[in-house]
Structures are given as C-alpha cells and as structure tokens.
Amino acid sequence: MKLNTVGIALSYYREKYGLSMTQVCEGICSPATMFRIEEGYREVDSLVSATLLSRIGKQVLEFELLLNEKDYNLFRLRKDIHRNLEEKNLDTAEKLLQSYQSVMQKKQVLHEQYYLWGKAELLQKRGASKEEIKAVLNEAILLTKPFFGKRKNTSDLYSEMEIKLFLGLIQFSEDISWKEAELKRMLLFIRKYDSKKIKEQAEMSILKELASIQEEKGDAQKELEYIEQALTLVKESRTMRGLAELHFKKAGLLKELMQRNKDMQQEYQKQCQVELTMAYYTALVMDNVELVQKIKTTGDRV
C-alpha cells in the first residue's frame, strides 16, 4: 500500500463513519499532521500508519506500509519480539526489546507504547507483582489516551495496541464497574468499525472478560448471554479453538439456572444435556483429554 493510499483510506473511512480528525488521531499525532497524512504531504512510519488505520477498524499488512530501511529494521524487531514472547524465550525477548528501545524514534509515543507493552508482557510472564504490571500498563495507555482516569476521552476509538493494553489492565483491576464499562465500550467499537479478521482476534477476549465479571456479580443469566455470544462468534469463525470449553461453561450455567428456577427445571436440564454432548464430542475431536473427563463427571450428576 503506497503512502498516498494510506491517506486516501484514512480520509475515506473517517468521513464514512462521520469521525473528526481529532477523534481518530487523539494521542497519536496532531490534527494538522493527520491532515497532511490524508493529503499525502506527510510521510510517517509503518507503526503510525497501521495504528491510525486500526483506530477506524482497518488493517493492512504492516509490511506494505514500510517507509525506509530504519522502519523495516524496527518492523523486524517487533516481529521477533512477538515471536520470542509467544515461545517464552524471555531472555531473548528482553534483549530484543532493549535493542528496540535503543533504536526507536525518540519522543514518538507509539514506539514508546510498544516498548512498554513488551515490558509489561515480560513482567507478567516472569510473575511480577500486580502493582508493577499495572503501573507499566497505565503508563503505556496514558501515552495515547492522555485523559484516561481523569475524564471521558474525546474518542471511544481504539487501536489494536490500546485494546491489548486495556485488556491487560482489566485483568488486574478490582473496579468491576470500570471494567464492565470499558469492555462494553471496546465491544461497541469492534462491532461498529472492525473488520471480521480483527473482530475474531479481540471480540472473544472481551466477551470472556464480560462473562467473568457477571460471574463475579453472581448474575448467571447475563453471564449465559455473553457465553452464547461467544459461541456464536466461534461458530462463525474458521476455528474450533475454545468451542468445547464454551459449551461446557454454558452447560454449567444452565445447571445453575435449573436449580434456581424449578418451573423451568425440565427445559434447562434438556438444554444442559445438549450442551454437555456438544462439549464432549468437540473435546474429543480437539483431543482435550482433561475436559473430556470433566464432562463425563459432570454429565453423571445432571
């Protein structure tokens, strides 16, 4: 994708969704810079281009946005950091992250944000304290959401990185009201703007977190609604990953509701058996031996 094509795409979708330049670029660059990018007068690196595009739910291969050799080297470093974090080569990931910090553009919030995200990932995988991880995540979020925790942001748009950071912070927060409100805002954004590919990556995590909050609140009916949405999402995707677990979770919630509502006991019991059967055969296909055993034990008690 050529640089002027990036500007055309940003301008087209921003206007299509009725968004102002300030909403899209808040915390990333000034509206004046955004204007120059849209008009093709300003060259920015691939991380800035990709982040602005993701704020309006669009995604391209970052490789297509590369500006120059330095940009390419930073791009390769990000890929290597991701790979080593996923493979839990933590010492290697840390060295790469330090290299990234030493060569990244100074006073460029997105590169600093990426570095802090990597630092938080390392801290979490090494078992650091919640307070330490939260402090790094907060620092990273404030780089592009400067009014976070102070007042409502001008924009309820999120980049992919911002969604990762908020999901990370939500795991460590004890403020249920804030967690639920933030998750709902992210879910609304994803469903309104994001492409199917991005939705599959983020929506499931958000729905599971929302279901978990309802479990904390003791609202089995609302938790069931989020689990059903998650099941629909998996069924519409090309993967079976997590499907058995969701069917099993739904069966448990139906069992709980069955015990609370005697009038619906027969109907809930029937639905529960269906969900356990779905969970069992899906777990068999996925070779999830531990879950198969759990389902057998639960099925005997329904």
UniProtKB/TrEMBL annotation:
Top-level lineage group: Bacteria
Name of the protein in question: HTH cro/C1-type domain-containing protein
Chain ranges of the HTH cro/C1-type domain: 10-63
UniProt GO molecular function: DNA binding
Gene3D superfamilies: Tetratricopeptide repeat domain
